[in-house]
Amino acid sequence: MGTITRSGAVRKPNETMRLIITTFIGVVFGFLVGISFPTISLSKLNFPSSLLPSIDLSYIEDKNSGLSTQTFLHRAWSSVKGNRSSPSHSQNLNDTSKLWVPTNPRGAERLPPGIVEAESDFYLRRLWGKPSEDLTIKPKYLVTFTVGYDQKANIDAAVKKFSENFSILLFHYDGRTSEWDEFEWSKRAIHVSVRKQTKWWYAKRFLHPDIVAAYDYIFIWDEDLGVEHFNAEEYIKLVRKHGLEISQPGLEPNRGLTWQMTKRRGDREVHKETEERPGWCSDPHLPPCAAFVEIMATVFSRDAWRCVWYMIQNDLVHGWGLDFALRRCVDPAHEKIGVVDSQWIVHQTVPSLGNQGEAKEGKAPWEGVRERCRKEWTMFQGRLAQADKTYLMEMGIEPPNSTAR
């Protein structure tokens, strides 16, 4: 036992001496490294975030700053001490590079939520004065017409049926815009000119739901509509009264071809599917009791349009087939889709868009346009059916009329 005690006593001074020598060598080595590499580059430092959580690295990034190793370590240590004493400063408020807000719209996650403007409108703004004083009135509704200059008189009559509560947007398929300035209202309208396109092509590209979010209702109308018996403000009142999310004015029953469902009833304000059984529900060309409006003079609520816009196919420009699919965007469709009878219009069936086609293989321009319309209808039905089938199969549901394998 005595031997063990003496050995411990002898070993202890030796260990102390080794520690002193090691420390001295480390200090000398550190000093030599310091004078050999007087500056530090941010790209060569990888400090754990837990060690240096709030160091402002902006002044380290500058290669010409001449920041010495000692100065950097001093600031780093001061920052760590400050963190331990003040937890509320755990993040440098001046460092916006760390912003990431997943609830922001896609692509805007790096912005603070308070600066994000996700929606827009067609309100005209001045180039001077205070922005808050730009608008004397903010229109609550939007009406769009797809037009050619040859129909200027008809469009002039139609626009005058819409009050200052409506923003006016014209899509010009013939490229003629400046001539419309003969009408005073045209100077306040929005004009979009792209040659030989349809209203659904324009709608897909210029009526994104976030662009028209300021408007309670969006009218997407053709140019060949007679509006002698139509008043837009009264129409809106009836749409609200009857809870219609997707609607159209009744069509004069004695003019042109139209679906039975959309013909005007002379004894009521509005008619819906639930009021028409069995009547039009027995039409062999319609799905059984499907809520239905045509696409020539459709009116959408803001929420319904958000759904419909996403359903419009980017390459199918005529919109044929949409009529039968609109019911997917409201629930219950038979209550929220309807025809406003007491505010009715006349379809004049002017084949203006057909004349924008191209004569080919002995066919007149309008024949090629009509042929594509029919093809698009078939394509849209096929895509919708396939999308339904794919979704049901992914959900583990056997699609209707399918054969189990």
UniProtKB/TrEMBL annotation:
**Which residue ranges does the record annotate as region Disordered?**
82-105
The alphabetical list of record keywords is: Membrane, Transmembrane, Transmembrane helix
**Biased composition annotated in UniProt, kind: Polar residues:** 82-97
Q: InterPro entries in the record, alphabetically?
A: DUF707 (IPR007877)
Transmembrane regions listed in the UniProt entry = 20-40
Q: Name one Pfam family in it.
A: DUF707
Cited PANTHER family: LYSINE KETOGLUTARATE REDUCTASE TRANS-SPLICING RELATED 1, OS06G0731900 PROTEIN
This protein is called: Uncharacterized protein
